[in-house]
Design brief:
Order of helices and strands: HEHEHEHEHEHEEHEHHEHH
Strand content: 5-15%
Distance between the termini: 39 Å
Number of strands: 9
Structural class: alpha/beta
Number of domains: 2
Oligomer: single chain
Helix content: 25-40%
Number of helices: 11
Strand order of the largest sheet: 7-6-5-8-9
Bound molecules: phosphoric acid mono(formamide)ester
Radius of gyration: 20 Å
Largest sheet: 5 strands, parallel
CATH architecture of the largest domain: 3-Layer(aba) Sandwich
CATH topology of the largest domain: Rossmann fold
CATH class of the largest domain: Alpha Beta
């Protein structure tokens, strides 16, 4: 694995290998003794807001003995008009092993992967993909349900603008799950079934007998027009509450990638219930990102990625 750009690029075997490795990090709190990232630098370039993803990449790299630099849009030369490519090439010239990128442009990670020497990880590109989120969600399901094979996973909410939904559908379907999506008709993109899911009209029908219910927030930051009449009407029609969750299997679990809007897509009692895996998802995010970083750095070291040579350098 040279880069991690999307779940679409991964085979089932690759996904399972990453999940197995992530699971092996369970219970790790301090630095891993073997420090597989010793001497490696991870650059976190986040040009969209993030709490969970950015911090967990940093914690993951540090647990593996690597060094981390964090670059946020507001504190970078992006605000002076520097392009994404010039910013990325500037960072790349300092020799990081991994460049973790979050950007509003769908395709940003793939674009950079062809133009920098570092391994590129997509930490969310517009409405396109968020592969490490899908992997941590799959790990969460696998650790509770043992397997995703034949499990019914219902994703409720703003499917149209959600990179979490796209990566999740691809990942869960590759692992053998039956994926249902539901939400207001305006928030279900045409052709979504091609990713490996079924569109179900009505939340009650979609949640019925599900093993997993994933709630997604409305992605207002990606909307250019009104897709729902009002937040209150959305909540009435699509919020996952205790009554709706009771239609799922009695041992169903609830996922939410965060950040959540309590009372809108999920009620507080469901978010804080014993069925909620929301804080487990965060914990699993660190484990998955450890597995991804270790795999990418090991690949680079095995492949002996060339550094450019300076003509006439070296002194002496
Ligand atoms: N789930 C997720 O990507 O959260 P952040 O935006 O906080 O990173």
């Amino acid at each position: 694995m040279e880069h991690l750009l999307g779940i679409a690029d991964l085979s089932r075997a690759q996904i399972e290998r990453l999940l197995d490795e992530a699971a092996s990090f369970a219970g790790t709190t301090g630095r891993v003794e073997t420090a597989p990232l010793a001497g490696a630098v991870v650059a976190n370039l986040f040009l969209e807001p993030s709490t969970r993803t950015r911090v967990s990449f940093e914690v993951a790299a540090k647990r593996l003995g690597g060094d981390v630099v964090n670059i946020a849009a507001a504190a970078s030369s992006v605000v002076k008009g520097e392009t994404l490519l010039d910013t990325a090439k500037t960072l790349d010239a300092m020799g990081p092993d991994v460049l973790v990128i979050r950007h509003a442009f769908a395709g940003a990670a793939e674009y950079l992967s062809k133009r920098v020497r570092a391994a590129v990880v997509n930490a969310g590109d517009g409405q396109h993909e968020h592969p490490t989120q899908a992997l941590l969600d799959a790990l969460t399901i696998r650790r509770v349900k043992r397997t995703l094979q034949r499990k019914v996973i219902t994703i409720v909410g703003d499917i149209r603008h959600s990179r979490v939904a796209r990566s999740g559908i691809l990942c869960f379907a590759k692992l053998g799950a039956h994926v249902r999506v539901c939400g207001p008709a305006t928030l279900i993109p045409p052709g979504i079934e091609k990713l490996g899911c079924t569109v179900v009209r009505g939340i009650e029908k979609a949640v019925k007998d599900a093993d997993v219910v994933m709630c997604l927030r409305i992605q207002n930051e990606r909307m250019t027009e009104a897709f729902v009449a009002s937040t209150r009407e959305y909540a009435t029609g699509w919020r996952v509450n205790a009554e709706r969750l009771a239609l799922a299997k009695p041992d169903a679990i609830v996922l939410h990638p965060g950040p959540m809007n309590r009372g809108v897509e999920i009620t507080g009692d469901v978010a804080d219930s014993a069925q909620s895996m929301i804080t487990d998802q965060v914990e699993h995010g660190v484990m998955v990102r450890m597995a991804v970083l270790r795999t990418l750095v090991a690949h680079r070291r095995g492949a002996k990625v060339a550094r450019p040579r300076l003509i006439g350098g070296g002194g002496g």
